[in-house]
Amino acid sequence: MGVGHGHGHGPQDGGQLTGHAGARYRWRLAVSFGLISMFFVVELVAGIISGSLALISDAGHMAADVVALGAALVATKIATRTDDTGRRTYGSYRAEVFASGLAVLLMLGVAAYVVIEAIGRMGTNPEVDTGAMLIVGLLGLLVNLAALVLLRAGAKDSLNVKGAYLEVVADTAGSIGVLAAAGLVAATGEGYWDTAVAFAIGAFVAVRAVMLGRQVLAVLGQHAPAGLDIDAVADSLASVPGVKDVHDLHAWTLTSGMNVATAHLVLHDNTQGQPALVAAQTILRNDYLIEHATLQVEEKRTANCDEVTW
Q1: Do both 40 and 167 map to the same domain?
Q2: Mapping DSSP to helix (H, G, I), strand (E, B) and coil, where does residue 305 land?
Q3: pTM to 2 decimal places
Q4: 306 — pLDDT class (breaks 50, 70, 90)
Q5: Beta bridge partners of 266
Q6: Residue 262: which residues within 8 A CB-CB, separation 6 or more?
Q7: Is residue 255 part of a domain?
Q8: Are residues 202 and 231 in the same domain?
């Protein structure tokens, strides 16, 4: 019976596993980046000229979109770059997670700015150009809908793309808010509707940022992948013929579509290590979508394992 460890690697393309998810959607990120970058300038200028805080707030959020999409593009490039230093043993895939974290910070910053500006305008009745608001709001809605179509599929597979997608979702809501504000101001003649809608946009952006931020922190904190029952994984490994005990089981997400795990498998006497190792790797790959597993098979639980307290 051999004692050692093995690495399980699943397929990178096709099959059940997603491999490096973000890189597959790079062109979609690039097109979305181009569309939103161009429209950001239009909306910012229109907001300043019209005096609409709703337009300015949406332009500020669109600026965050531009930075977030740009960071997402850079991250997908970095994530696929070959490591020449020999020090990044897991590659640079976490760059995508950091890009998502940047998107969260930008969204929170925009939300804070809009809310502060809205509070400052309370009690006033600012004059706004509703015609400009309607035209720019409609154009912004069309641009955002096009970006949503491009990014929707990637948001299901990649946390990085999801961060960019949620930015665009929030901005789409902002465009709808601009249209609503323009209609209300035009119908009532009261400019405070513009301020109220801007406040609502800021609050919405903040909520979306917190939701994404929780996911980013879960990955950086090396929590078990979402939806993975670690006890069920341990039971499945313990059910492998010849396995007597499972300990030191850890599972986490490296980046979207890349789940990894480590574990020690204690074998019954006279059990061959290689068949048990292969069976365990197969279970992790097929049942739990863990394509990279480092498994150590042991004749008995060692003192080193018992002495480690973390």
Answers
A1: yes
A2: helix
A3: 0.72
A4: low
A5: 245, 298
A6: 248, 249, 250, 293, 294, 295, 296
A7: yes
A8: no
